[in-house]
Specification:
The structure holds two protein chains of two kinds. By secondary structure, chain A is mainly alpha-helical. Chain A contains 15 helices and no strands. The C terminus of chain A is likely disordered. Chain B is 36% helix and 28% strand. Chain B is globular and about 45 Å long. The chains are: A mainly alpha, B alpha/beta.
């Protein structure tokens, strides 16, 4: 007899296409050595989008202020490095924990609401934090941000090169590690219960689920991952600035997730590169009107591909002989 | 087992159930019948914590659940099969069960034995199931939480007669087991009397008849009179 546990694992087993994704991502290092900085930024934003997917895609918590966690992670990692804690991995972990603590503080307020009020509260928290960071220039550097970050070599061996080779593998490592961690979380009974909460909170309550506790845990996890993403961003760019806390960044990551496909994890990993590459190419083509291209793409996805780019891919593969649409 | 003492409650300040008292013995199956709108479903929803209790007490064994939130009532041992089934559409059958699972006699193996159709569909998503299968899953999900008492709100509603027959057969196995108390709200009088040992008839938020189901089966005139079918 197949148990519930084994059926869960079976549904979330690793598929061959996933290896293709990770091998393709790693091969960017060899195929595009002059674009490592862009590739690293894409991986950082992919990690950030993954953090949003955990709460939005799986738990149904809408956030328009997710950059708050990213920004806290950035500033924390920058301050640690500037105060002599230059070991990058522990620095990123501490920054992630700081963002997680902030999530635990604001979570009870955010999770009291659903729908539009929840959007407003997250937006307000993001704006307040942005303004607070702007005023607290002794900590954040204000408009000038925090520069001059120096880090120890990665694992005490790999120097942070000007062309970004170490930064690429550093971001790749964090993305892979936290993706695997989130994958395990999603496949666990806890992760399944989050999906149940997304679909019917009331029903979950009446089968004995402590709704608030589950959502707060997910929110804290999401804050941690977003904080690590922010920390990695500050570490590889040697800079933390107000932009990392901005509402624009919160909207960007939401758009990335919608483009890629919400509630699929890989949607975040596909949406971030699609958005950033389109942004990159479109702004090269026209630096003033590139948003038209991104806006058009978003309208296309919303109208014709509700499951995002990943949904289109799944549907396409499902039509191939031997393919299986979800 | 379950005791309601002078329970009054309803929705948004409106009283639907008024000063209702009731004791259910361990292992018994009690059916509640009555016309539409007399408060049968609201009574169940008061017990699970969905409707608003105004006064009175809800006791399960020695525990007073009156002020406990819904999820704590479920953990204390109240299982609930809602009228709308409410399976999680994007979770598989196995996942629908896993979110409700608590240790006890009802395991996934036992639930699948009771509903073999679900065992074959365990990898299918909730929305891919038929109405009958969704109802079976809703009952199975309540059972795998290993409740002390199972509240079921019109489990046969909207199902084809052949599906009702299958479901009733499975429910008969559940109630015949004797390890679980069952409170069943049912529109179909035949199903209610067939499955229960005790039957309550409700009218306007109150219990107007309380007696053995077997006696009521032999007395269609009383049923017709109390349910306003005359």
């Amino acid at each position: 007899m197949t148990t519930v546990g084994s059926t869960l694992l079976e549904r979330h087993r690793v598929r061959p296409a996933e290896y293709v994704y990770w091998i393709a991502l790693a091969s960017v290092f060899f195929l595009f050595p002059r674009n490592l900085s862009l590739a690293t930024s894409i991986m950082v934003m992919s990690l950030f989008a993954l953090s949003l997917d955990l709460i939005l895609g799986f738990a149904g918590v809408v956030s328009f202020g997710h950059a708050a966690f990213f920004g806290i992670g950035s500033y924390c990692a920058a301050q640690l490095a500037l105060h002599g804690w230059s070991e990058p991995i522990s620095g990123a972990l501490i920054a992630g924990l700081a963002a997680m603590v902030f999530a635990l503080v604001v979570g009870p307020l955010v999770l009291r609401f659903t729908g539009l009020p929840q959007i407003m509260v997250t937006l307000a928290i993001g704006i307040i934090l942005y303004e607070a960071a702007n005023k607290a220039s002794s900590i954040t550097g204000g408009d000038d941000g925090l520069g001059g970050i120096k880090l120890m070599p990665l694992f005490g061996t790999f120097e942070w090169t000007a062309y970004g080779q170490t930064a690429f593998w550093y971001a790749f490592g964090w993305l892979l590690l936290l993706f695997i961690a989130l994958r395990i979380v999603i496949a666990s009974p806890f992760g399944v219960s989050l999906q149940g909460l997304r679909e019917n909170t009331l029903r979950m309550r009446f089968i004995g689920t402590p709704v608030f506790g589950r959502l707060l845990r997910a929110y804290a996890m999401s804050g941690f991952v977003a904080g690590v993403a922010g920390a990695v961003s500050a570490q590889v760019n040697k800079f933390a600035g107000l932009d990392m806390l901005s509402t624009d960044r919160s909207i960007d990551v939401l758009v990335m997730l919608i483009l890629g496909g919400v509630g699929k994890l890989y949607g975040a990993l596909i949406g971030a590169p699609v958005y950033m590459l389109v942004h990159h190419q479109a702004s090269e083509w026209n630096p003033f009107h590139w948003m038209f291209v991104v806006g058009g793409l978003l309208i296309f996805v919303v109208m014709f591909a509700r499951g995002g780019v990943l949904g289109l891919l799944e549907a396409g593969l499902g039509r191939l002989p031997g393919g299986r649409a979800q | 087992m379950l005791e309601l003492r002078n329970l009054t409650g309803g929705w948004a300040g409106t009283t639907v159930i008024e000063n209702l008292s009731l004791k259910l013995a361990s292992g018994d199956t009690t059916a509640i019948i009555g016309r539409n709108g007399v408060g049968k479903s609201t009574l169940l929803e008061l017990v699970v914590g969905r409707a608003e209790r105004q006064t009175g007490q809800i006791l399960l064994g020695d525990a007073d659940l009156s002020t406990r939130p819904g999820f704590k009532r479920a953990v204390a041992g109240i299982g609930y099969v809602p009228q709308e089934r409410e399976v999680f559409p994007s979770l598989t059958v196995a996942e629908n069960l896993s979110v409700a699972k608590r240790p006890g006699l009802w395991t996934e193996e036992r639930v699948y034995e009771l509903f073999p159709g679900l065992a074959h569909r365990r990898r299918n998503l909730g929305w891919q199931l038929s109405g009958g299968e969704q109802q079976m899953l809703s009952v199975a999900r309540a059972l795998i939480g290993n409740p002390k008492i199972l509240l079921m709100d019109e489990p046969t509603e909207g199902l084809a007669p052949v599906v009702v027959e299958k479901l009733v057969e499975s429910l008969r196995a559940v109630v015949g087991d004797g390890s679980l108390s069952v409170l069943l709200v049912e529109q179909s009088i035949d199903v209610a009397l067939d499955l229960s040992t005790r039957c309550l008839i409700m009218d306007r938020g109150r219990i107007v008849h309380d007696g053995p189901s077997a006696a009521l089966r032999e007395d269609p005139d009383t049923i017709a009179k109390l349910m306003g079918l005359e």
